[in-house]
Every structure is written in structure tokens, then in C-alpha cells.
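Researcher: I've been going back and forth with a colleague about how Chlor_Arch_YYY domain-containing protein might be arranged in three dimensions. Neither of us has a model we trust, so I'd like an independent prediction. The organism is Halobellus clavatus, in case that matters for your notes. Sequence below.
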Amino acid sequence: MEYALVLLWVALYAVLFALGLPLAARLLPGAQGRGAGFAVPIALVVLSVPAYWLGHVSWGPLALAGGVLALLVASALAGLDIDGLRSGTLRLAVDIDRDAATDAAAVFLLGFALVVAIRALDPAVHPGGGEKFLDFGLLKTLAQSPTLPPEDFWFANEPVQYYYGGHLTATLLSWLTGTPPRFAYNLALAGFYAALASAAFELAGAIGADRLPGVPDSLSPRRARRLAGGIAVFFVGIASNLVTAGRFALLALPEPVQRPVVAAVAAQSRYAVEDILAGADSFSYWSASRVIPGTINEFPLFAWVNGDLHAHMIGTPTLLLAAAVGYASYRTPQSNRRRRRALVFGVLPVLAAWQAVQNTWSFPSVLALGWLAATFAPADPATLLPGPIAVRLRSAVRGDGAAASTPSRLLDECRRLGGATLAVSMAAAVAVLLALPFLLGAATGGGGRSVEFVERSMRSGVGGLLLVHGAFVVGFAAYLLSRVHLERRWALVLAVLWAGYVGQQIGFAALGVSVPLLVLAWVGLRTSRSLGYETVLIVAGAGLVTLVELLYVNEQAGPGRMNTVFKTYMQVWVFWGTAMGVAVPGFVLAVVERDATGAARRSIGGLPWRRVGAVALAVVLVVSTGVYGVLALGSHAQSSPAGGPTLDATQFVETQHPGYDRAIAWVDELGGQPTVLEAPGTGWYSGGTDDRGRVMYTWQANPVSSLTGVPTVAGWQHEVGYRGQDSYRERVRDVDAIYTGSASVRADQLDAYGVEYVVVGPNERARYGSIAFEDEAFSVVHRSGDVRIYAVDHDALPTRS
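Model: Here is an independent structure prediction for Chlor_Arch_YYY domain-containing protein. You can compare it with whatever you and your colleague have in mind.
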């Protein structure tokens, strides 16, 4: 186990934390905690963005130095009293809450230690069960690329067409610590999880300190912050969906009703009846991420146990940072127009543009958060706009306040929506301009993407939606109903049940799940002062859940809406998990307040029955979503790599693929980015039968290029989504021609792609059979086990055709 490296990375994160604290305090100066939990996410963004831009000129020491200098200058400008410096006095210009900083640092360290422990037991970047070959290949190619964007290691001589911003940040951290990518992979993964946990703790804690104190009197703002933050960390980083707990609940049913109920659940999910009835002995951490048919339903704990260094995961700290910017704007008084405009038109576009590079799927969500914050903030969104536009919007209002007529109130609401839309549209234009080089380059391709309506057969059933989101829906419903004054709650319950029935009949189950939550939260924000920014996060999540039942991005990455739901649900989990930090104690404390004012009429064991019910519901929500974590971490603890715990992501190659390990190490030591040819990562073969069997997500697909970052001509079939099927298959044909074609055809293709080395190993022989490179243009430069690597002498190639 590489304990020295772990301590080195802890020291690096401590420095980033210290440098980020003044910037976080500037972002949330009046909030409880002063934004301390956002110190590392802010520092990572400030480090990465300048390095990214400089990297287009020179990616390496210059970009790293530029990022470090930018972070140092930004931290100094935010934290130091400039007037004091002029007079020779060194003092802080911001208020740092040391207790809050200690809390945030503790959360970060605990999160970091948890994932380090998880990865030390299974550190391998094996190809199965995820995107580790893609993620590690990006890390390796970034470590050796001279400029940005890096060359695509699965499509030689072309720039990568994937969102690689998170991997860029990981590369910067590996350079700062001098850590090889095989160790940096797992250490960066742990850091991103810790940054997510600390960000959730901070945002929920800051909101909770505003919303929760006073009930009971002993709950001070600091205690409220810790309570809300701690619950948010659980629901964001530890909790799971209801699949695991649901299986145990079904197994507890009486035999006569068990199988019919299980059959009904199976019909609404991807599980077979026998799978559900198998019991705890058959537990697999994997199954809880595949619930709704035709989709992937990941959540953070699953993702980090699985261990991909993937964009939808490593972009989550920035996503919550964007939510914090929205919160900062939301709580800034209307009179402080300068600060609100700086947040909306300055900070938000930079974060959105950077999120496009980290995880393009979250780019719209960052802007949507800004729009929701502007829409629901106490301040008039029109005041964000230039004077003439704001005047025209105000002129549309007829009447004001509660005394206004219904048409006037509707006009006022439309004006607010219009003002927020115009303001965020301007911010979006700035964000697109900042992200344009990426959006026109690495984010584009020939994959043929289009936005389409979700057909009825593709939509989620009510059972699947409740298995995935049920804990959140119940928790938020309890919170909203405890805060919003409704005279006929039974009528609301009947309306939701009716909506659910209608939704099932018309094939739109979200009508009875996410849509009522969206409507109740929206109306509550506009009518009740007891709801705040936590409800904005509820609206954001409910809107996304509803949206993916209506629209999806049609692309090559999985059939139908699989990838759309996959990339969207992680965002939903982060928003809703953070909001649960306020919602769970919120509905319990609301009941305590009612009891204190004499609302309770009956008791259970001497305690008011409402209070007992509220506490019981909170316990059920925690226990039901915590069962998975206990089983997943428990079963994971029983595994260990050969030789004991380690953070070496490639150690598995030596034990599981002897022969390949030395060949990969030899290619890795070449330096630079020569083009190395190996069998393409697809079972499609125009010239015969590929005997490798299943190719994608196995060792049979491009281990050399994936584990070295050295480009090959045609890598995994993922490239179909990036380049289009015709472009990818053309390359596959060319690779096939090099391995099986005539000498002149071979020479043409080797020259066309600048191939310098050719790999001939078990994977190539399984696809092509016997392979001969015996003429003078090829010489064996490496031999290990069944693997041969040939160097290509282009001058000795035969006359071209």
C-alpha cells in the first residue's frame, strides 16, 4: 500500500483547501460556514481553467504554472487586505469561520479515506463493468500530449472528441505531486468523491442554518449546519435507491401474497422474479444500478465502488459549486445589484463553460440552476437586466402584492419568468462563447446526435420510478406538506393518486411521481416564505426526472434513451441528496413546532403521535437507503488484489495477462505519441469471423492503447458515437487490410496512418488467424509470451499501389 503517496495527496488537498477558503468566503460571505466546504472545488476550477486555455498553446509545465499562478493570485486578491499590504500590514480581508473550516476539512478527509480504502481493495482499471479503459486512456494521453486537445488514443491522428476536463484536472494534480497515472487514477478518484461530499455538506449546511434554527430553541445555526450537512453527505455519498431494501421487504411478505407482488414489481423493472426472491446471499452491488428497463440508474456510492474515473461523476463537485453560485445569488439582497450581476453574468458562465469541458451533459443544468435561482429569489430578476429592458418588463405589471387581481398576479409571475429567462439567456451566451472552442471541437463529431421524443414503450413505469426515486419523493412530500399551508390535504392526495392512475393509462407514469412534486414545490416557493433554496434544488431534480420521460438524445452510446437517463440521473441524485439534508430534519422539526403550539392531540408512549410518526419516517428513509451501502462495502471488503492492498491501477495486468504486461510496459516507455497498431475494439469484421467472441468491455479490445494512451488506428467501438459509423468502419477495414492484405495494400495503409509499431498477440490472432510480418520492413523489437511488437521501417516498405 502506497501510504506515502496518500499522505502526499492529502497535503496537496490541504494546500488547495487553504487557497480556496478565501474564494469560498467571497462566494458565501454571509452564510453560516462561509462556504468552507467549497474551498477544494473552487480551487480545482481556478487551477484548471487557465491551464486548459494555456494548454492549447503548450500543455505541460507552462499550463501547470499558469494554473498554479492563477490560483495563487486569485486566493491572494480574495483573501488579503490590499490596503493593509500597501501599508506593510498582512491581514485577511475576509471572515474565515475556523470551526466551519475544520468541519469541512473533516468531511473531505473522511470521504477521501473511504474511497482510498475502497480502491485499495480493487484498484484495477479492468475493462469490464464500466469505462475504466476509456478513463485511464484519457489520463495517460493527457500526461504525454504536447498540446490540447490531446490526440485520440482510439482514433490516431485526430483530436479526442470527448469531455475530458475532469481528467485534465486529475493530470494537473498528478503533475503537482509527481504521481504516475497508474496511482493518480485512484487518488484523483478519491479526491473528487471527497470534494462532492464536502460540497454537499456545505450547501445543505448553509441552507439548513438559514431554514432550520429556532425549532427547538437549542438548535443553533451551527448545529443546524452540521445536522443538515451531515444528512446531505449521507444521502449524496452513502445512500442508494430502494432496490436492496425493497428486496428484503418483499421477502418478508407472507407466502400467499409474495409471488404476485414480486411479479408485479418485476414487470415494472429489469429484474426477474427469481432474482428478487434470491435473498441476501445473491447480493451484487451492480444490480441496483439497472432498475428501469432500457436505462442506467447510477448513484454516487455505486459509481465510486465501481471505480470509473468518469465524467458524470467527476463533474459533480462543479455542479454543486454552480448550485452554490445560484444560492449566493438567491440570498443576495436586491439592492446589491452589482454582486448579483457579477454572479450571474461573470461566475456562472465560467462554471458553465468549464462544466461543458468536464461533462457536457451538465452544461445545461448549470444554466438551469441560474435560471431557477433568479426566478425564485426574493429579488426581482428584472433588476439583473439593463435599464430599458427592465422598465419594459415592469410596465407589464398591473397591481402588486397580495391585493392584486388574479390577472395582474399572473402577469407579475410572467414578468419574473421573463426577467429570469432574459438574464440567464445573456449568461448562457457568454458561457457558449467561452466554451465555443470545445463545443466546436472536442464536443462535436459524426455520431449523428438528435433530440427526440420518448416513445411510450420507452418510458419508465411507476414501479421503476419509485424504486429509484421513492425515498426522495416521500421525504420531499413530507417536507413540503409540513411547510405549505393546505386546508384540504386529502384532496391533494386524491389528486396525486388520480394523476398516477391517469399516467399509467397514458404511458406517462411521471405524472404521478415527479410532476406532482414539481408542481407542489414550485407553488410552495411562490406562496410560502417557509421554503427556500432547498426547494429550488427539489424543483431542479423533479424537472430533470420529468424531462427525460419526454425527450432524449438519440446517439450511438447505448440504445434509445439509455445514456440520457444515465447521465441525467446522477445530476438528479446530487441535487436531491443535498436537498434531503434540509428536508428530513425540516419535516421533523415542523412537527415539533406544531406540538409546541398545541397541535398534537394524541400520544404514543407519552410522546405526541405526530412527532413519533415524523421521527419514524426519517429513520425509515435512512435505513432503507442505507442497506445497500452496508452490503456493498461489506462484500467489497472481502476482496483484495494479489499481493495485498494497493492503489496501482495496472498491477492486475501482470497477474491476469502475463506477456501483455511487459509489452504494455515497453510501449509505455517509448515516450511521445507514436501510432501503434492493434486489433480494433469491435466484433464487426467485413472480411470474416472474429473469434474473440465478446469484444467490447473485455481484455480483447485494445489493451495496449488503453493502458498506455499511445494512439491506435481504430480502438473501441465507442468511436462510432464520436465519429459516426462510416468513419469508424472505414478505419476498421484499413486495420484489417494491414493485418491480412497484400504487401502494397499494407504499405498504403501504414503510410496513411503513420503506423510505427504493430502489435501481434492473442487478440490479433483470434481475429485474423495466422499473421505474418516477415519482410525487411518489419523487425521484432519486443517479445514477451505470445505478444510480438514489430517496428515499421517506412523506407523499406514495397512500392505503393
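Researcher: What would you highlight for our discussion?
Model: I'd start with this: The chain is about 60% helix and 5% strand. After that, consider the following. The first strand starts at residue 450 and ends at 453.
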